[in-house]
Amino acid sequence: MKERLKQAPPKIPDEAKLSWKKGHGDHPLDRYLKEGRIPHIWCPGCGIGIAFTAFIKALEKAEFDQDKTVVVSGIGCSGRAAGYLNLDTYHTTHGRAIPFATGLKLAKPELKTVVFSGDGDLFAIGGNHIIHAARRNVDMTVICINNFNYGMTGGQGGPTTPVEARTTTTPYGCAEHPFNLIYLAKAAGAAYVARWTALHTHELRDSIVEAMSKTGFSFVEVITPCPTGYARRNRLGTGLEIMRFYKENSYITDILEPEDTALLFKGKIAVGKFVDIEKPTFMEMYREYIVQQAENSG
Amino acid sequence: MKSNTVITGTHFITGDDACAEGGIAAGCTFFAGYPITPATEVAERMSKRLPQVGGVYVQMEDELASMAAVIGASSAGARAMTSTSGPGFSLMMENIGLAVMLEVPCVIVNIMRGGPSTGLPTLVGQQDVMQARWGSHGDYEIIALSPSSPQESFELTVDAFNLADIYRVPVIILSDEIIGHMTEKVTISETEKIKIVHRKNPACGPENFVPFFPDEDGVPPMALAGDGYHVHATGLTHDEHGYPVITADAQERLVQRLVNKIRKNEEKIVRTEEYYLDDAEVIIISYGCSARTSLDVVETAHGKGMKVGFLRLITIWPFPETKIRGLASRKNVKAFVVAEINHGQVVYEVERCAAGEAETVLAGFMGGRIFEPDELYKVVQEIAN
Ligand SMILES: Cc1ncc(C[n+]2csc(CCOP(=O)(O)OP(=O)(O)O)c2C)c(N)n1
Ligand code: SF4
Ligand SMILES: [Mg+2]
Question: In this complex, do B52 and A111 lie within 8 Å of one another by their Cβ atoms?
């Protein structure tokens, strides 16, 4: 064993390098991808890659500093995003991306901190953390891939699965009320809340720029197709057909109250920006109030 | 950073407060925790001290989050810690495993109380010793230190930060309700005299840096978030680049190293304290608050001319295996008596190391109180005869 560890570190396999170079070598967004990590694990027609691309296009458009932007993911198909990015990235435990990111941000406030993860990760097992990070107004951006199910584990029902929808664990149709993530994020105290679908690539990119530029807790929900899990069991068709569905059934609004944006099974999808307010962040309050008091009393 | 960082001087404080001051003296600048008896005072003191020294205190929503935040903060370069007791320690297990896998230094203070479950919130126990070692799933090694006084709570917390950084591993302070709530004299030396050892930084630029490729000691240098190294860290089994590799080979390579970087350095890490071992026929082994009563018993027995010695474990994990094997193989040593407040935890490790060369007996006490010297003396007397 010791001998083996003395050997030079394994190089990135040539095949991997080759496929990266061949397929993507000259792409302008290449500098945002970690060398040798493509191809990714996502299924054909999956929407995560679209949201991922919107994110790196946001990095490009706003010229966010790659050395100072960190991405934290939980566990799930969406959570694999962290591993492909040419930034400091952390693939943590199921549900804990937000508290991990909280530690990163509070310890090094100059970091632009982004959490990229799935609906189950962020709102089931991690549900407690997202509401508290929003309440504290920790300066971070959460990008939530909402595919209405647990993709990675094979398509089980979760906190966003609409009533009636079939999944591997709701074989008779889901009979629990889902969260409306927009309403929840607002109620918990988020400073910025938006929702887009995988069809709205430009709006999504711009929204991510806006969210990342916002000082405070910002939340962007991305409705994405999961052809392998959710769509197949509900006969929603291929990735392309789901995109057509988004085209016909989504509408951009800036007048709806967050509580009126709930998503029903095969229903209309309200997209747009729903919250954009100013309020002091955790660190601003900490510095301006707590540290001041400590100095005065100390 | 402000000048009142280290409160040099002599103080009359509790073990809990001493852990907090140990953290401050070690340069801890981040604490995330959740209140729980009998560890709350650590968090309370940190909430007061950290804003004075340029650090951040945050009370998280639970211990799952506390542990995750501590790892995040340490990944960004802060010396980070948390404190808890049994029920919270159970919740921290998930992300202690993550810290092991990501090799992120951090310090967890566990002021042990009686369990299982909510158990005895205000009363002593030493029942989390095995949990500290095995509580998170999978195979790993970890470091745990057990203070027997407030002074030692201070000193070991400083050491804990150094060991965490040197080995890139979570270090647990296994204190207990009695030590945590006991008030004694604690002397804190001048800042310059407090030994601080930091984690290794990358020796090269990002182009040539392989984030999980170890040095000779089995420990890779650590690049911090925001330093331009673009490191990927994952809880999945990974190769030296940090990229997930889900194969038996990668598992062997990684987990062997995680285990060996502690095991192979056992002799550097382990610290014990010994009394009257030279001609001892019976050796009491104990730690934490139990060690205080044990010492009293040893002195009494010694006074009566009995050949009773005492080994106090300061390091509990990695287990002082070499030390105890050595003692067991001595001709004069007939038996070990392990005094602890549980139904038997350290005793099994001692038995394993004694390997039949010396008898191993548990003096186990059920928790909720510290045992009387007489209770242990009786056990020792019986064995000695
Ligand atoms: C503590 C824990 N419980 C369960 C799992 C198994 N698990 C892995 S991913 C996942 C669900 C992910 O769903 P979501 O966050 O919606 O991501 P998606 O795969 O849909 O993108 C689950 C339950 C786990 N990894 N850890
Ligand atoms: S299972 Fe669903 S979410 Fe996961 S990669 Fe495949 S399509 Fe995407
Ligand atoms: Mg999902």
Answer: no
A119 part of a folded domain = yes
ipTM: 0.97
Smallest CA–CA separation between A250 and chain B, in Å?
A: 36
Are B181 and B89 contained in the same domain?
yes
Pairing of strands B282-286, B335-340: parallel
- Whichever domain contains B48, its CATH number is 3.40.50.970
- Please compute, for residue B283, the number of CA atoms within 13 A of its CA located in the half-sphere on the CB side: 34
Amino acid at A136: R
Chain B residues with CB under 8 Å of A294 CB are 48, 51-52
What's the CATH code of the domain at B356? 3.40.50.920
User: The domain containing residue B103 runs over which residues?
Assistant: 9-193
Residues 6+ apart with CB under 8 A from B202: B209, B221, B222, B223, B229
Give the A:B interface size as CB pairs under 8 Å: 175
pLDDT one-digit tens code per residue, B111-170: 999 999 999 999 999 999 999 999 999 999 999 999 999 999 999 999 999 999 999 999
Instruction: Say yes or no for a CB contact (<8 Å) between A87 and B230.
Output: yes
Q: Read off the pLDDT of residues A109-145 as tens digits, 9 standing for 90 and up.
A: 999 999 999 999 999 999 999 999 999 999 999 999 9
Q: Supply the pTM of this predicted model.
A: 0.96
- Say whether both B57 and B179 belong to one domain: yes
- A40 and B CB contact within 8 Å: no
CA-derived radius of gyration, chain A: 20
Tell me if A102 and B76 make a contact (CB, 8 A cut-off). no
